[in-house]
Design a protein that fits this description.
Belongs to the methyltransferase superfamily. PrmA family. This protein is 27% helix and 31% strand. The relative contact order is 0.10. With 295 residues, it is of the alpha/beta class. It folds into two domains: 6-93, 2-Layer Sandwich (Alpha-Beta Plaits); 102-294, Vaccinia Virus protein VP39 (Rossmann fold, 3-Layer(aba) Sandwich). α4 runs parallel beside α5. Strands 8, 9, 10, 11, 12, 13, 14 and 15 form an eight-stranded mixed beta sheet that branches. β8, α5 (172-179) and β9 form a beta-alpha-beta unit. The chain has helices at residues 18-27, 70-80, 96-101, 144-154, 172-179, 192-204, 235-240, 242-247, 265-272, and strands at 6-14, 32-37, 56-63, 86-91, 107-109, 113-116, 128-131, 162-166, 184-189, 211-215, 226-232, 249-261, 276-278, 282-284, 287-294.
């Protein structure tokens, strides 16, 4: 192990103990601590203010170059016992910003829509490109639920129409709709960080003049009805929001819902069948896209 390498100490634990272990790693000199899923267990996007960890969580502490990890491992075992797996590994020193950027590539959705990081480009005739960098707000196009919604928007004739993006996150769906020809878009979210991200991304893509953003609440929103509504949230909140989303969608208007596991689709369809004629479920990697038409 070279003295120029960073040192990582990894511990596999439960979500209940993860924060305690993170605190111990910081006390022993960890420069940063991260949490990752130890068993590929899906955790859906939390509500604002809510924090979730995986049932089996790997906690990793990053230690300075040249640190001897053995005394730290011994101390952790003395405190936590031998039943918690832990190990030290080296992390080669390199240009981590470049390595991170190299992970991302342009992604195509439908026939002509692309989501592309700002440091790359798309060279395809008649392509519609949304420039979007990975960030704090949910929705960069890589998740199946976002992909389903983007493919749906690409399949529509949006020319001259208003699109409502309820739970806009990064603004990816609203921005994509505008790039695909929508006249204007409305973005609603209950997270202020999401609205900031949406505004920044819309500005970067040159469509901020056609996007209006609103802080959502449980109360009725005084917005014009839209002929097209998309909502990529979660099954539970979507079912609860049915009266609001129905009220914001014009008669005969189109609806697309995602953020729903396939096994949750029936309960959401039941909620929306009160005001919408729902179509057959479209599935992608265990996630569902629900579409329908406002009665």
């Amino acid at each position: 192990m070279s003295n120029s390498d960073w040192i990582q100490i990894k511990l596999r634990t439960t979500n209940q103990l993860a924060d305690t272990i993170a605190d111990l790693l910081e006390q022993f000199g960890a420069l940063s601590v991260s949490y990752t899923d130890a068993e590929d267990s899906p955790i859906l996007e939390p509500r604002p203010g809510e924090r979730k960890l995986w049932p089996n969580t790997e906690v990793t502490g990053l230690l300075a170059q040249g640190t001897d990890p053995e005394p730290i491992l011994s101390a952790l075992k003395a405190i936590l016992g031998d039943h918690i797996p832990m190990m030290a590994t080296h992390l080669e020193d390199k240009n981590w910003i470049r390595a991170w950027m190299d992970q991302f590539k342009p992604l195509k959705f439908g026939k002509r829509l692309w989501i592309c990081p700002s440091w790359l480009s798309v060279d395809e005739k008649d392509s519609v490109v949304v420039m979007l960098d990975p960030g704090l707000a949910f929705g960069t196009g890589t998740h199946p639920t976002t992909a389903l919604c983007l493919e749906y928007l690409d399949s529509l004739d949006l020319a001259g129409k208003q699109v409502l993006d309820y739970g806009c996150g990064s603004g990816i769906l609203a921005i994509a709709a505008l790039k695909l020809g929508a006249k204007n878009a409305l973005g609603v979210d209950i997270d202020e960080q999401a609205l900031i991200a949406s505004k920044e991304n819309a500005t970067r893509n040159g469509v901020i003049d056609r996007l209006e953003l609103f802080m959502g609440t449980d109360k009725k929103l005084n917005l014009p009805k839209s002929p097209i509504t998309v909502a990529n949230i979660l099954a539970g909140p979507l079912a609860e929001l049915e009266p609001i989303i129905a009220d914001l969608t014009e008669s005969g208007g189109l609806l697309a819902l995602s953020g729903i596991l396939t096994e949750q689709a029936d309960s959401v369809i039941e909620a929306y069948s009160r005001d919408f004629i729902m179509n057959k479920v479209k599935d992608k990697e265990g996630w569902a896209l629900l579409t329908g038409t406002r009665k």
